[in-house]
Design a protein that fits this description.
mainly alpha; 2 domains; 5 helices; 64% helix
Length: 94
Amino acid sequence: MSSSWGIDLKSCSPETLFDLANQLKGSDDKTQLLSIQKEIIERVRGMGASNQVIVDLLIRNMWKGERAALAEDWSEAMGISELEFRKLANVRKS
């Protein structure tokens, strides 16, 4: 999977993917961020991780208030609804 920047996401290390995702957080380039998130999710699922395990990894060391924002940020990449993400993260809609 190649990004619009010309970066081959398949060849990036997990650390590089997370760095790229963090750099794009809050930017207007939602398509690029989504493609990076999908690559991360695909790799973790390829290791046999369930949606619950993925959500647990994403919310690790976060306050519950911070977790709610992740539902919006990551649910599409995971192919689940924000509500399902919130349920997995044990976060109520505020």
